[in-house]
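hey team, just a heads up i'm posting the complex here instead of the shared drive bc the drive is being weird again. everything in one block, sequence lines first with there labels, then the predicted structure for the whole assembly after. its two chains so it's a bit long, scroll down
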Amino acid sequence: MYDVQVVSPLNYFAFTPLLPSVTCGTVEARSIVEPVRNIIKKRKGEIQFWEAECIKLDAKNKQVICRSNINNNLVGNGEFHLEYDYLVMAVGAQVNTFNTPGVLENCYFLKEVEDAQKIRRGVIDCFEKAILPGLTEEERRTNLHFVIVGGGPTGVEFAAELHDYFQEDLVNLYPSVKDLVKITLIQSGDHILNMFDERISSFAEQKFTRDGIDVQTGCRVVSVSDKEISMKMKSKGEVFSIPHGLVVWSTGVGTRPVVKDFMEQIGQGKRRILATDEWLRVKGCEDVYAIGDCATIDQRKIMEDIASIFEAADVDKSGTLTIKEFKDVMDDIIIRYPQVELYLKNQHLGDVTDLFKDSEGNYRPEVDIEQFKLALSHVDSQTKNLPATAQVAAQQGTYLSRCFNRRNECKNNPEGPRRFRGRGHHQFLPFQYKHFGQFAPLGGEQAAAELPGDWVSMGHSTQWLWYSVYASKQVSWRTRVLVVSDWTRRFIFGRDSSGI
Amino acid sequence: MYDVQVVSPLNYFAFTPLLPSVTCGTVEARSIVEPVRNIIKKRKGEIQFWEAECIKLDAKNKQVICRSNINNNLVGNGEFHLEYDYLVMAVGAQVNTFNTPGVLENCYFLKEVEDAQKIRRGVIDCFEKAILPGLTEEERRTNLHFVIVGGGPTGVEFAAELHDYFQEDLVNLYPSVKDLVKITLIQSGDHILNMFDERISSFAEQKFTRDGIDVQTGCRVVSVSDKEISMKMKSKGEVFSIPHGLVVWSTGVGTRPVVKDFMEQIGQGKRRILATDEWLRVKGCEDVYAIGDCATIDQRKIMEDIASIFEAADVDKSGTLTIKEFKDVMDDIIIRYPQVELYLKNQHLGDVTDLFKDSEGNYRPEVDIEQFKLALSHVDSQTKNLPATAQVAAQQGTYLSRCFNRRNECKNNPEGPRRFRGRGHHQFLPFQYKHFGQFAPLGGEQAAAELPGDWVSMGHSTQWLWYSVYASKQVSWRTRVLVVSDWTRRFIFGRDSSGI
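-- predicted structure starts here --
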């Protein structure tokens, strides 16, 4: 039985994948949040929650220093510290402006529920201001120019939501300015949604072009002022500025100061993101784990351990590996170094033994260490960082809680792969991410999706799939009912345009 | 056909009678608001809406000076002026602190939707702060002490909502501090709900006592600091202070600066509230009307016109009035001076002719001017100001729009009562308020109500009546559906305690 203490500056858990829907009121902010205390109440055991900001992690003394961020005049010292045996960091990431001047001051973001609420109010403000008497047409156009920086799933979904909001709702309420609205999506890469399959990218680009959304690819934003946004065309190197009414910055993931400070303490000061091993243990620090966007898994390279692997596999100490000897360790290798499986798949190799073929395609009966190195030399290039998505974070959370709950059990009967550089087995299987696919809603009741097994699906039916998947993924029955009734309400009454 | 222009600093209309329900999340803020543009769209004719604050009324040049209150960096001059032929003021009232020090800085209010949202967040903040480690029990108690100033319907309903919120929802989420919560209701009068029937007052007081809500009557608040509230017991004159976590100021109606400035211009500078005549025309200013909480009807006293009435009624110029002569003008008198009817009712006089009785109860055949004055001398004491409720404002709005739409029709065929001090008839009937009763929800699914015909109703069934009346009074079908589904959601899932 663990004594669990949860610290968070927000007393609710937000289902962030629906944040873009909140920006235009398709879904209400409250429908995607569940109070942490509600979630805790349903679990067995002693769990306590404190609404406070974690301001410092003290790895040496194993304690967390917290401060209440309630800013009114309530009495009592809001600062306290908690001691821990095990610490799980799941503080997420913050916006990364890449030090672009003016971004923090002049852009909206899409990280928190409050950000989405601010955008919603901001969009209506733009319309109410643009329609007032006494403005020139140019001024109206400027106020109704919505710029989105970042062509990833969030930026694209927000652009699509915004376009639907205009076309389906606002056009009837602000008829005199309806022809002055413009949406620009700025992407530094050559295509939007470039983490998706090419077919999805081009489908999205075509749909946006038809919708009149201006997609500027190959553009890097160099500064944002209160009135203008300046960018550089990568191809020509020329810098130009356009006036804007509202800019949403939806790109980049940055490390929070408290994590940065912690990294200094544990010797990761030179890294950009906190590193964990494959068991989600923070490197360089005992009993600290990290999941979600605040950390990244530093996958061990197979080439670093190649000599140990060879030695461990070479049971008869002959200095060469037979296919049988190799096969005996292969399962452990694939679990410990998942890049091997990815490599086999990408090279269209049916079986690991194919690695034993020589350049002419014939099986070698035995390989020596140099040949073994050569055969695996390209494997590590397949190592990939996991995306900063809720899907990854949720799986990591589940994985870690399972490990904690099987700690005693697995101490005696380790379930992990064999240790090549030591003895025995690892206590747990390393974390393995299962990609169940990813959606990109594109507006007009259409969506694109990458599904398991390299399936790609696009169009109206995909949007319905999106509805059902997102409804099923809600944290509680309460939010599920709320989200579905929000969608229904939107179908019947449209989106609300009150400036609150 | 009128060219209608609507100016408001908020682009939505809020159904304010449900504001107390928003403070605890029984109803969501968005469920009680309807965008002004939605309301306009459903009406025929040219109506334009501008989201701006009216910063000055210029009665002499017949124009309104407006300024957009959108504070971000959108381009364009947000200041403009509108010229009018007719002006209808419906700007409402602002909070009145009676110059009590510290109220503006340290209290929450309940006038606007945003006020209710702030209270909701504030209540949760108190709980989250009170439960943190390292506070003394005294500090926890202070943070969980909720004070409401004002024992009117709003204050009482809020106290009841808050009590329900604790008992039904928060008690399960914050079990360790549940015994430290205290609600205090401060009322300067001797009873809460003193505008209601006595039976309702005492029912409410008894229910609150059973619920553990501390009702402090006969107490006047003298100052509020960030940590304490000081008050004076009227009976003993002693001043004492109590520490608080949150204070809601729910008493007093004050005049907005723009109205105050306008009153100076038109010679009403010495009054506290803008005065209109019985046709809702602002006194001292042509073509300006005022409805709702921003003005009050200055009912003409019958004694001011008594000589003219006598003269007009005395058709044969005999110097005395016969009963028949009096009866002929009585209908016009009752319409012009509604206090007469109220007087007859309160004196239990069945008929106006009863006024002609002498002290022994016998009818006088005729009365002279002095006897006539005497008979009516107490009538004006029945003149009452209308309450500052949505019910009054809504009826005034309907009345005024009907007048505007019948302007030409009634020019030729005036519908109003006869003019005693001039010739002919008034163009329109004066505004007459119909009181349909008033509710006071008391928590725990109980309510009290004053219904037409001096009926009083209390208990659970009254709460269900409240639900049906409030559902039916919603501005649109959309908000009606939202409010009812919010109630349903509350029954099923309880109230949300997320701090957003």
